[in-house]
Amino acid sequence: MAAGSMVVIFLGPPGAGKGTQAARLAEDLGLVKVSTGDILRDHVARGTELGRKAGPIMERGDLVPDELILAIIREELAGMPEVRAIFDGFPRTTRQAEALDALLAELGAPVNAALLLEVPEDELVRRMLKRAELEGRADDNEATIRRRLEVYREQTQPLVEYYAARGVLRRIDGLGDPGRIYCRIREAL
Ligand code: AMP
User: Fold this and answer.
1) Sequence-separated contacts (24+) of 100-105 with Cβ below 8 Å
2) pLDDT-derived band of residue 138, with 50, 70 and 90 as boundaries?
3) What is residue 109's predicted lDDT score, i.e. its pLDDT?
4) Which atom of ligand 1 is nearest to the CA of 14?
5) What is the DSSP letter of 81?
6) Dist. CA 36 → ligand 1 center (Å)
7) Ligand 1: which of 9, 10, 33, 40 to mutate, judged by most atoms within 8 Å of the beta carbon?
8) pLDDT grade, residue 137 (50/70/90)?
9) What is the value of pTM for the model shown?
10) Across-strand partners of 9?
11) Does 47 reside within a domain?
12) Among the options 60, 84, 95, 131, which is catalytic?
């Protein structure tokens, strides 16, 4: 089973381009893109119990509790005959990363790479404000953007060291044309 497994994680602050790059990589490598943000937004739109819990937290720019996120991940992994996945926006806390490692160990599918998209903060804000115009995401407003960046620094940034220590971290320059950024990602893999 482990022979054909592949697990790639997209790390990086909000607005770094994780979703865009993850979608393209998933398509090219035949992997399933698992975006916890997209899954949560779908629950909010459908008004499910999870959506009603997560919606107000997301609007503030805070993190949804680990337990709720891990339930989503367990369900996604359970549906895969063999783990071939790209995680976009997950894990975001050390607890999530440890739980993912435990789940993957059970499935015999280690993390192959954690890609860190590096983009300066002023560019992140610029991109998210532009996305607000295009997609109208409820959390792409200036106050929430600031909070999301702070939450990233405090709760998610430690994962850079976590994956570096495991020898799977790849730093990618996330500035410039999306096609060129994608080339850098392919080279890094
Ligand atoms: P994203 O689309 O990845 O930027 O996620 C949008 C929002 O969904 C975040 O600001 C969080 O409130 C929530 N969210 C998404 N993924 C996670 C996660 N792995 N852990 C906790 N909250 C998350």
Assistant:
1) 100/73, 103/73, 103/74, 103/77, 104/7
2) confident
3) 95
4) 4
5) S
6) 6
7) 40
8) confident
9) 0.94
10) 87, 114
11) yes
12) 131
Range of the domain at 91: 6-188
> Residue 61: inside a domain, yes or no?
yes
Is 1 contained in some domain?
A: no
Write down the number of H helices and E strands in the chain. 9, 5
Distance CA 94, CA 164 (A): 13
Distances (CA, A) of 111 to 60, 146, 176: 31, 30, 27
The first and second tokens of residue 38, run together, are: 């997209």
pLDDT above 90: residue 170: yes
Q: Which of 53, 60, 84, 137 does the annotation list as catalytic?
A: 137
Which CATH number does the domain housing residue 58 bear?
Answer: 3.40.50.300
Q: Ligand 1 mean position to 112 CA, how many Å?
A: 22
Q: How confident is the model at residue 140 (pLDDT cuts 50, 70, 90)?
A: confident
> Which amino acid makes up residue 163?
Y
E-strand stretches of 36-161: 84-88, 113-118
